Amino acid sequence: MAFSKLGLSDPILKAVSELGYTAPTAIQQQAIPIILSGKNLIAAAQTGTGKTASFVLPLLEKLNAAHYGHKLRAKRIRALIITPTRELAVQVAASISQYGQYLNLTSMAMYGGVDEQPQKQRLLEGVDILVATPGRLLDMAHQRALHFDELEVLVLDEADRMLDMGFIGDINKIIERLPAQRQNLLFSATISQDVRYLAKSAVNDAQEISVSTNSAATPEIEQWLITVDKDKKSALLSHLIEQQQWQQALIFIETKHGAAKLVGQLEKRGIKAEAIHSGRSQAVREKLLADFKSGELSLLVATGIAARGLDIDELPRVVNYDLPYQSDEYIHRIGRTGRAGASGEAVSLVSKDDFKNLCAIESRLGHIIERREIEGFPVKKVVPVSILNFVPKSKRR
Ligand code: AMP
Asked: For 221-395, which CATH superfamily applies?
């Protein structure tokens, strides 16, 4: 299918073509016509499937079509995209600027952790598309720095993650303030019970679509793991980086403290890495991300939360230094690699205390992850083979 068949107008098609997109991805083929028709939508799609363009392109089309003669009033917005993290907000806003470069629509990313004055100033003129994290958004609404009475479309992006991060209260308070007459779009990597509950209050009468991880746009991700004693993880990681000559890797770790410690351990072995986590300032995080993207920094150690929303194209490799507690999080992490046409690998270092998480992940995948052995790292505490129908306690009924 060609982009031109989707009902998008020339300035948008031109921008998309200049980005080198030759055909819409599966989620784009399904979502764009539904959104253009004005219906509510619930979409199960994770990062890497082209989901951002699947709502940004039709949003631009609709707002542009209704733009003629429209004068934005002060502090008003026409579309609101809520994202879990500032990094994702920045990324989505960047996509809007790219896809909308030949249109006359305005957009802005608004998030916490930075001075609110410039954001307030910007809102004074009104903004067509606002991308915001829940906390700062609610704060601005409380301060009457923005009003929702002209809002036409609400998008909840990475809804599952927003719930995981405890934003449900803020989101509900925002939704209460929105005009009843509006179009609602919800995107989520997985549609859990909690997401359904949120959807019930925010997105009624919705059409539902889902794209699997194996959609045409999602490249092959080679997953493998190494079992290792916990106290040998950093030595093993250094060994892999050197022996396999890793040029670029995003390394996930559970805690801030662990991230800082690992960077120190790598440094002692002459390997340069940097840590990105919620304890670092926004300016530092942005600089590290830019360096990592440009290739100046080849190893980035990130806590799961900080890493959410980082859009790094064609990342060759993600490493799970620790396995995440949630199997969805694993899926999300590995979706960071091999994006948009490139292949990638996801490597996990698994010690005995990761066993339960491994069982949950492999059960979720429906298969066991290939185990590889690395010479020089014999394991004392053996990690058993998973039982594939494992259900974590918290999910048992
Ligand atoms: P997302 O799933 O929104 O995070 O997008 C993943 C990546 O796919 C981004 O780097 C986009 O630039 C890219 N992308 C989105 N749509 C297409 C497309 N139709 N063809 C090629 N690349 C795309």
From this structure: P-loop containing nucleotide triphosphate hydrolases (3.40.50.300)
